[in-house]
C-alpha cells in the first residue's frame, strides 16, 4: 500500500523460504507463506487493528486473507496481532466492545489464543496497561507451538516482546537433499598445497597410479595427450572438474551458508547497557510494590522517567552514529551506504511474492510461484513448427563449409581468463578466476588442448552448460504481481564462460571483418552506444521535419527477449553468413543439452532449456545481435528507418500526411510480424508505443496494429534514457532530468548538513560521478533545448542546489557565486562542451581555434579493421638474452613542442649504428611521441630484416604507459595496432626475436640519455619537417574546456550577482587555480550570506543592520573582518603576520586571500560568531 506501514514480518534466517501474498497484504496486514524442507507449510500473519478504525472492517480484511489461505490448502496459520481490543478472555482487567467483537471472531473462525496469564501486561504506558497483543493460531498449529513467553526484556517500545517456539518435529533444522553451489575463499588459499594435490590427482588420472614425477611440464603434456586420446570430451571435462574441486577442497576454505545471528549495532555502548539494567531494575521495583500506593506511584514515575531518558539516549546514539558515519565519508569512500541510500541503490534480499499466471489466476504456493518464474526464464518451445521453421532447421542440418578458423593459442586463452573479475559470482562448481588462472599456470598445455579439442570436435561440454539462476527484482517492481518483475541472471561455470568468450570473439570478428552485421544495431557493438543510435534517430527526424513531413516513432517491446531467442534462427543466420565450420559446430553444440536450476531453501527446480540466450553468459549478447540482425535487414518501404539497441527495436517513419504514415507503419508492422513468426519471437503490443511528431496543431488519428492489437499512442516516449515529445522541444526531457537529479540531491541533503555530514570533497566527487552524468547524459542529442532560456534556468536551478551543498552555504546564495566557489562549470556551458567534443570526435563539428577537418583525429581503429583474436601476441618479455641490436626510444614535449627519437646500438652498448629524430605537431601528446618512436624503431628493424633472418633485438623505452597501451588488446589506438602488426611480421615472417623492455628514465643509462637528448632536440627544432600531425582527443578536450572556461569567465565578469564573492575572486581563473577547503563559516564570508546583521536585515528578519560594537555601523562582513572591536584579538594575529612579511595593513580582500590564504582562512574559522 501507499500509506504508513504499521505491520511487518522479518525473517532473519536465509535457510527459510518466504512467499509474500501481495493481493492479501496491505499497510496494516502482512500475509506470508513459509515452506519447510520436509514439505510442511505454514502461513504467518502480522496484523495491526487501529483503534480509530471500525474493528469489524479490519476483521473482514483478516477474514478475507484467511479464506484465501484456505483456498491454497494451507491449514497451519500463526497470527501476531496488535488488536487494540481488551477482554478477560486474554487476561485483561476489562472487556470492551472491541474485545467482544474480537471474541466472536475468534470463535467463528476457530482461531485459538496462545496468550498465557503470567501476570504481566503486553502493553504498558504511564497512563495504564492492557493485554491488547494477541498470538493466535489455527487448530493444526496448536501441537507445534511451545513456550509462549511474555518477555520482561526492556525495549524502547510500550509493547512487550512476545516469543514462542515452533517445532515441526525438527524440520526447521533438518538438512535438505538439495545440492548447493559452493564458494571458495581464494583470499586464504594455500596455492602450494593446491598445486601439490592437483599434481597428484592428475598423475593418478594420466598414469593410473601415484607418480614421483616432479616436473609439472611433463605431467602437463601427459594430461594434454590424455585429453586428445579420450573419445568422450564430456567425460574428461567432468574428470578435470572433479580434480580441481578436490584440490580446492584440500587447500581453500569455503564460505559457509549465511546464518544471520545476533548482530551488534555501531551505536550501542556500555552506557546504554548500564541504563538498560537500571531501567529494568526500576521497573521490577515498581511492579513489586503493591502495599504502599504512594511509594508505588513514586517508583512508577521514576521508572517512566528513566525509560524516557533511556529511549532518548538510544535515539541520540543512533543519530550521533549516523552523523559520525556521514562525517567519515570523504573523497576516499564517497560511494558508501550514504550514497547508496540516497540513490535508492541499497541492496535488499529477494522477496518472492504471489504472481499472476497467463490465465489471470494467481499462484497459490512457493513451488507454483517458482514454476511460473521458470516458465518465464527457461521457456519451452511449445509452438508447432511451420514450414519456415522446418526450413530453418534443415538449413542448420545441411550446412557445409570447408572453411575452418584457426585453433586457440595459450596467449589468447590467458587473455580471455584475465578479462574476468575475481569478485564475480562463480557457477555451481565454485571456480573463480584465480582458481582457473592457477590451473592454467600449472597446466597451460592441457587447458589449451581441452579448448582446442572442443573447437575441433564441435563439442561444448555438458558440464559447462549447467546454470544456476539467480533472481533480481527490477527497480520499482516490488509490489507488482507480474512475473517480469524478476530479472534472471545465469551463473555458469567460469571454464565454460572462457570457452564462450573465445567462441563469440571469433564469430563476431568474422562477421565484422566482412561487414556482415547491420550498422543499425548499436547494442553490444564496439564503438557504438545509445548516443550514436539517438543521434541517428535525431538526424532522420529533423531531416523529415525540415522537409515539412510528419514523423511516427514506433518502439517495440519483445516479450521475453533474450530468454526467448530461437536457436535454429541463430544457427541459420550463422550458416547464411558462412561461419567457419568448426565455430558453427561449437555454436550448435552450445545450443543443446542446456539445463537451468533455481534453488531456494526448500525447493530446487531444474529444467532443460529449449530456447533463449542465458543472461549472464558471454555468448548471449553476441548470438542475440546475430539473430536480430535479420530484422534490421528486412525490405522496409522508403521513408522507414529501423534501428535497434540490443533487443530495443525502433522504427521511425516519415511521410507527408497521416494517411501515408498509417499506411507505411502498418506495412512495416506486417513485415515485422512475419519476421517474428518465423523466428518464434513475440512482440508485446500493449507495452509497445507510438509517438507522433509533427508541427501541426490538429492531426487525424493514426491506427497501427501489431499481432492483431492496436499499439497505444503516447504524447511522450522514453527511448534509451532520453524523453521525446510530440513537438520535438526536449522540454519533457529537461523536466524529467531535473526531477530525477533533484530527488537524488534531496536525499543527499539529509546527510549533508552545514555542520555535519558528507564533506565537500565527497559531495564534489558524487556530483562529478553521479549527478553530472545524469544531467548531461546524451547531451549531443538534446543540446538544442538550451536555446530556450526556461530549460537553462531549470538545469541551473538544480545545479545551484548541489553547489550550495558542496560549499555548505545558505540557500540564498546566487547561482554564479555558488558554482564559482564550488569550482563547477555552469551546467549549460558543460553540456555544450561535451557536445563539441562528441561532434568533433564524429568529424562533424569544428572547435574554434583548431583547423578541422584539415587534420586527422587520432581515433581508434574501426572494429572491422581489428586483427584476429589469436593475434594477441605477448609483446613484453623479461628474458632478453644478448641481442644483436639494442634500441632506445624516447619522446619529449617542451614548451608545447613535441619530438621523439631512437638510437640503435650494436654489440651491446659499444657502437651506435643508427640514430633518428622526428618532429610531431605541437598539439600532439607525449604518449603519441613515445609510441611513434617505438613504431619507427620497428620500421627500421623491418628494413634491416630484409638482409638477415633469425636475429634478435630489444627496444627499450622509459614510458610504462606506452608499453601498457601496446599490451592492452582492447586498446585499438592506430599507432599501437601498427606496432603489434609489425611485431607479428618480424617475429613470424623474418623469424626475429624482438622484445620490448622498460628502463627507468634519468638513471644514467647511456642509451636512454642519448635518446632523450635527441628527442628534445627534435622538439625544439623549428626547421625539421613534421612527421606526425594526428590530433589526440586529449587536445580536443583541452580546447573544448578552454572554450568553456572563457564563456564562464565572461559570464562571471558580466553578472551583477555575487558582488561580495567578486571581491575575493575577481575572475574565474583566480578561483580554479586555488584549492579551497570549504566550511560554513568561510562560505559566509566569501558570499556575504551569513549571520551578520546586515544580511538578516536585508531579509527583514531583524530591524536594525547596525553592529552592537561602539562604532555603530552596518554589520557587514567587511566590518567584521577589518574593523569590529569584538574580533580585535584574532585580527591582531593576522595583522602581525602580514606586517612581518613586509606588507602594510589593511590589505584588500583579494590580496589577503591570494597572498595569505592559509592564515586568512584560519582567521575566518577562528571567529566566534556568537558575538554577533
TrEMBL record:
<protein>
    <submittedName>
        <fullName>Putative non-ltr retrotransposon cats</fullName>
    </submittedName>
</protein>
<dbReference type="Pfam" id="PF00078">
    <property type="entry name" value="RVT_1"/>
</dbReference>
<dbReference type="GO" id="GO:0071897">
    <property type="term" value="P:DNA biosynthetic process"/>
</dbReference>
<dbReference type="InterPro" id="IPR012337">
    <property type="entry name" value="RNaseH-like_sf"/>
</dbReference>
<feature type="domain" description="RNase H type-1">
    <location>
        <begin position="881"/>
        <end position="1020"/>
    </location>
</feature>
<dbReference type="GO" id="GO:0004523">
    <property type="term" value="F:RNA-DNA hybrid ribonuclease activity"/>
</dbReference>
<dbReference type="GO" id="GO:0003676">
    <property type="term" value="F:nucleic acid binding"/>
</dbReference>
<dbReference type="InterPro" id="IPR005135">
    <property type="entry name" value="Endo/exonuclease/phosphatase"/>
</dbReference>
<dbReference type="GO" id="GO:0042575">
    <property type="term" value="C:DNA polymerase complex"/>
</dbReference>
<dbReference type="Pfam" id="PF14529">
    <property type="entry name" value="Exo_endo_phos_2"/>
</dbReference>
<dbReference type="InterPro" id="IPR036397">
    <property type="entry name" value="RNaseH_sf"/>
</dbReference>
<dbReference type="Pfam" id="PF00075">
    <property type="entry name" value="RNase_H"/>
</dbReference>
<dbReference type="InterPro" id="IPR043502">
    <property type="entry name" value="DNA/RNA_pol_sf"/>
</dbReference>
<dbReference type="InterPro" id="IPR000477">
    <property type="entry name" value="RT_dom"/>
</dbReference>
<dbReference type="InterPro" id="IPR036691">
    <property type="entry name" value="Endo/exonu/phosph_ase_sf"/>
</dbReference>
<feature type="domain" description="Reverse transcriptase">
    <location>
        <begin position="453"/>
        <end position="711"/>
    </location>
</feature>
<dbReference type="InterPro" id="IPR002156">
    <property type="entry name" value="RNaseH_domain"/>
</dbReference>
Amino acid at each position: 500500500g501507499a500509506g504508513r506501514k504499521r505491520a511487518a514480518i522479518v525473517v532473519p534466517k536465509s535457510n527459510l523460504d518466504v512467499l509474500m501474498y501481495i493481493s492479501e497484504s496491505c499497510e496494516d496486514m502482512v500475509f506470508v507463506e513459509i515452506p519447510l524442507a520436509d514439505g510442511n507449510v505454514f502461513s504467518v500473519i502480522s496484523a495491526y487493528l487501529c483503534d480509530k478504525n471500525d474493528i469489524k472492517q479490519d476483521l473482514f480484511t483478516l477474514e478475507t486473507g484467511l479464506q484465501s489461505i484456505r483456498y491454497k490448502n494451507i491449514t497451519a496459520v500463526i497470527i501476531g496481532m496488535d488488536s487494540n481490543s481488551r477482554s478477560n478472555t486474554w487476561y485483561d482487567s476489562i472487556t470492551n466492545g472491541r474485545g467482544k467483537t474480537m471474541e466472536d471472531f475468534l470463535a467463528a473462525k476457530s482461531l485459538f489464543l496462545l496468550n498465557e496469564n503470567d501476570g504481566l501486561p503486553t502493553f504498558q504506558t504511564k497512563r495504564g496497561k492492557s493485554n491488547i497483543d494477541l498470538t493466535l493460531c489455527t487448530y493444526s498449529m496448536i501441537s507445534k507451538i511451545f513456550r509462549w513467553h511474555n518477555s520482561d526484556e526492556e525495549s524502547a517500545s510500550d509493547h512487550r516482546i512476545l516469543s514462542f517456539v515452533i517445532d515441526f518435529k525438527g524440520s526447521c533444522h533438518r538438512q535438505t537433499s538439495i545440492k548447493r553451489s559452493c564458494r571458495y575463499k581464494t583470499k586464504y588459499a594455500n596455492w602450494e598445497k593446491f598445486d601439490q594435490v592437483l599434481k597428484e590427482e592428475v598423475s593418478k588420472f594420466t598414469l593410473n597410479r601415484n607418480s614421483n614425477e616432479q616436473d609439472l611440464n611433463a605431467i602437463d603434456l601427459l594430461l594434454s595427450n590424455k585429453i586428445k586420446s579420450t573419445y568422450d570430451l564430456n567425460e574428461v571435462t567432468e574428470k578435470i572438474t572433479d580434480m580441481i574441486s578436490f584440490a580446492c577442497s584440500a587447500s581453500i576454505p569455503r564460505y559457509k551458508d549465511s546464518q544471520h545471528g545476533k548482530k551488534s549495532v555501531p551505536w550501542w555502548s556500555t552506557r546504554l547497557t548500564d541504563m538498560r539494567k537500571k531501567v529494568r531494575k526500576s521497573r521490577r521495583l515498581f511492579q513489586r510494590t503493591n502495599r504502599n500506593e504512594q511509594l508505588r506511584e513514586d517508583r512508577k514515575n521514576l521508572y517512566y522517567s528513566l525509560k524516557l531518558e533511556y529511549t532518548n539516549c538510544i535515539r541520540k546514539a543512533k543519530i550521533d552514529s549516523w552523523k559520525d558515519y556521514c562525517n567519515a565519508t570523504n573523497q576516499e569512500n564517497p560511494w558508501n551506504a550514504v550514497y547508496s541510500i540516497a540513490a535508492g541503490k541499497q541492496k535488499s534480499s529477494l522477496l518472492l511474492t504471489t504472481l499472476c499466471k497467463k490465465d489471470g489466476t494467481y499462484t497459490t504456493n512457493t513451488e507454483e510461484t517458482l514454476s511460473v518464474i521458470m516458465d518465464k526464464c527457461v521457456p519451452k518451445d511449445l509452438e508447432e513448427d511451420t514450414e519456415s521453421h522446418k526450413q530453418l532447421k534443415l538449413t542448420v542440418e545441411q550446412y557445409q563449409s570447408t572453411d575452418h578458423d584457426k585453433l586457440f593459442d595459450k596467449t589468447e586463452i590467458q587473455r580471455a581468463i584475465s578479462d574476468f573479475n575475481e569478485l564475480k559470482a562463480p557457477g555451481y562448481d565454485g571456480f573463480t578466476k584465480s582458481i582457473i588462472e592457477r590451473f592454467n599456470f600449472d597446466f597451460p598445455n592441457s587447458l589449451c588442448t581441452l579448448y582446442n579439442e572442443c573447437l575441433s570436435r564441435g563439442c561444448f561440454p555438458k558440464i559447462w552448460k549447467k546454470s544456476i539462476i539467480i533472481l533480481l527484482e527490477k527497480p520499482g517492481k516490488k509490489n507488482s504481481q507480474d512475473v517480469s518483475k524478476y530479472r534472471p541472471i545465469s551463473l555458469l561455470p567460469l571454464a565454460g564462460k572462457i570457452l564462450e568468450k573465445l567462441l563469440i570473439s571469433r564469430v563476431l570478428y568474422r562477421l565484422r571483418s566482412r561487414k556482415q552485421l547491420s550498422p543499425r544495431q548499436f547494442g553490444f557493438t564496439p564503438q557504438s552506444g545509445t548516443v550514436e543510435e539517438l543521434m541517428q534517430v535525431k538526424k532522420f527526424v529533423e531531416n523529415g521535419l525540415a522537409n515539412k513531413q510528419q514523423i511516427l516513432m514506433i518502439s517495440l517491446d519483445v516479450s521475453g527477449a533474450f530468454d526467448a531467442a530461437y536457436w535454429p534462427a541463430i544457427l541459420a543466420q550463422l550458416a547464411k553468413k558462412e561461419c567457419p565450420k568448426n565455430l558453427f559446430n561449437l555454436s550448435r553444440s552450445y545450443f543443446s543439452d542446456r539445463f537451468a536450476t533455481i534453488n531456494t531453501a526448500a525447493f530446487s527446480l531444474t529444467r532443460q532449456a529449449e530456447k533463449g540466450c542465458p543472461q549472464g553468459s558471454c555468448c548471449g549478447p553476441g548470438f542475440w545481435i546475430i539473430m536480430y540482425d535479420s530484422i534490421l535487414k528486412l525490405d522496409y518501404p522508403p521513408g522507414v528507418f529501423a534501428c535497434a539497441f540490443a533487443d530495443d527495436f525502433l522504427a521511425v517513419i516519415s511521410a507527408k500526411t497521416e494517411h501515408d504514415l498509417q499506411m507505411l507503419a502498418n506495412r512495416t508492422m506486417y513485415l515485422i510480424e512475419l519476421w517474428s513468426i518465423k523466428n518464434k519471437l513475440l512482440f508485446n503490443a500493449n507495452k509497445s508505443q507510438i509517438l507522433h511528431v509533427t508541427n501541426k496543431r490538429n492531426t487525424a488519428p493514426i491506427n497501427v496494429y501489431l499481432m492483431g492489437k492496436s499499439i497505444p499512442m503516447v504524447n511522450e516516449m522514453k527511448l534509451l534514457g532520453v524523453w521525446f515529445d510530440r513537438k520535438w522541444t526536449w522540454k519533457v526531457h529537461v523536466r524529467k532530468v531535473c526531477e530525477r537529479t533533484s530527488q537524488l540531491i534531496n536525499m543527499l541533503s539529509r546527510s549533508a548538513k552545514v555542520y555535519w555530514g558528507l564533506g565537500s570533497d565527497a559531495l564534489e566527487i558524487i556530483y562529478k560521478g553521479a549527478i553530472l552524468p545524469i544531467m548531461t547524459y546524451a547531451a549531443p542529442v538534446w543540446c538544442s533545448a538550451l536555446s530556450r532560456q526556461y530549460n537553462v534556468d531549470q538545469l541551473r536551478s538544480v545545479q545551484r542546489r548541489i553547489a550550495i551543498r558542496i560549499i555548505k552555504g545558505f540557500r540564498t546564495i546566487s547561482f554564479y557565486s555558488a558554482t564559482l566557489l564550488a569550482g563547477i562549470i555552469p551546467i549549460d556551458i558543460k553540456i555544450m562542451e561535451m557536445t563539441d567534443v562528441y561532434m568533433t570526435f564524429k568529424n562533424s563539428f569544428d572547435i574554434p581555434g583548431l583547423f578541422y577537418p584539415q587534420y586527422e583525429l587520432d581515433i581508434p581503429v574501426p572494429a572491422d579493421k581489428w586483427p584476429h583474436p589469436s593475434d594477441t601476441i605477448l609483446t613484453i618479455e623479461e628474458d632478453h638474452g644478448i641481442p644483436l641490436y639494442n634500441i632506445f626510444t624516447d619522446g619529449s614535449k617542451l614548451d608545447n613542442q613535441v619530438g621523439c627519437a631512437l638510437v640503435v646500438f650494436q654489440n651491446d652498448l659499444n657502437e651506435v649504428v643508427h640514430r633518428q629524430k622526428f618532429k610531431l605537431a605541437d598539439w600532439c601528446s607525449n604518449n603519441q611521441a613515445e609510441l611513434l618512436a617505438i613504431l619507427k624503431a620497428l620500421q627500421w628493424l623491418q628494413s634491416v630484416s630484409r638482409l638477415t633472418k633469425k636475429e634478435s633485438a630489444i627496444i627499450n623505452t622509459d614510458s610504462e604507459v606506452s608499453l601498457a597501451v601496446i599490451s592492452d588488446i582492447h586498446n585499438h589506438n592506430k599507432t599501437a595496432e601498427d606496432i603489434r602488426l609489425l611485431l607479428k611480421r618480424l617475429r613470424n615472417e623474418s623469424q626475429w626475436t624482438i622484445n620490448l623492455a622498460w628502463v627507468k628514465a634519468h638513471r644514467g643509462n647511456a642509451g636512454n640519455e642519448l635518446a632523450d637528448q635527441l628527442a628534445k632536440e627534435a622538439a625544439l627544432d623549428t626547421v625539421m619537417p613534421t612527421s606526425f600531425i594526428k590530433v589526440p582527443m586529449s587536445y580536443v578536450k583541452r580546447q573544448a574546456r578552454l572554450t568553456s572556461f572563457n564563456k564562464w569567465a565572461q559570464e562571471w565578469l558580466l553578472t551583477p550577482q555575487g558582488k561580495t564573492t567578486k571581491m575575493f575572486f575577481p575572475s574565474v581563473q583566480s578561483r580554479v587555480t586555488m584549492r579551497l577547503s570549504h566550511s560554513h563559516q568561510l562560505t559566509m564570508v566569501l558570499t556575504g550570506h551569513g549571520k551578520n546583521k546586515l544580511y538578516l536585515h536585508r531579509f527583514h528578519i531583524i530591524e536594525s543592520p547596525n553592529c552592537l560594537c561602539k562604532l555603530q555601523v552596518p554589520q557587514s562582513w567587511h566590518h567584521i573582518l577589518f574593523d569590529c572591536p569584538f574580533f580585535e584579538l584574532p585580527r591582531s594575529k593576522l595583522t602581525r603576520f602580514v606586517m612581518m612579511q613586509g606588507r602594510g595593513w589593511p590589505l584588500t580582500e583579494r590580496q589577503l586571500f591570494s597572498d595569505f590564504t592559509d592564515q586568512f582562512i584560519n582567521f575566518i574559522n577562528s571567529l566566534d560568531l556568537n558575538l554577533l
